[in-house]
Amino acid sequence: MQHETRTTLSAPQVLARAKTFFAERVPQYGAFLEKEGPAFATFRGQGGEEIAIAVFEGPDGTRVRASTLLFDQVVDRFFSTLPPADALPTA
């Protein structure tokens, strides 16, 4: 399933938070960094299941997309920790 949100954080901040969150905050479903780049990170967890996260910075915040088969609730929980882009001031 694919998930998407927008946040006020920068792309590097989102990816740094994801690395900590998936490794430490969800011990029964821990997922650990497998590959990363400036705009993405993939994690492997229980049974080899994958979480892929991509970030796209724009004028209306950073768009965060995640794809997973097993970790839907965990991804939703991670997204709930990100400050929403609706908090950006409007001109």
Mean of pLDDT: 90
Task: Count every helix, treating DSSP H or I runs of 4 or more residues as helices.
Answer: 2
Unreliably modeled segments:
none
Strand content: 35-45%
Sheet of most strands? 5 strands, antiparallel
Protein architecture, described:
- With 91 residues, the protein is α+β, with helices and mostly antiparallel strands.
- It has one domain: TATA-Binding Protein, CATH 3.30.310.80.
- Helix content is 26%, strand content 40%.
- It is built from two helices and five strands; from the N terminus they run E-H-E-E-E-E-H.
- It has helices at residues 11-25, 72-80; strands spanning 2-7, 31-37, 40-45, 50-58, 61-68.
- A five-stranded antiparallel β-sheet has the order 1-5-4-3-2, with helices on one face.
- A hairpin with a 2-residue loop joins strand 4 (50-58) and strand 5 (61-68).
- The N and C termini lie far apart (35 Å).
- The model has no long low-confidence stretch (mean pLDDT 90).
Summarize the structure.
The chain has 91 residues and is α+β, with helices and mostly antiparallel strands. Helices cover 26% and strands 40% of the residues.
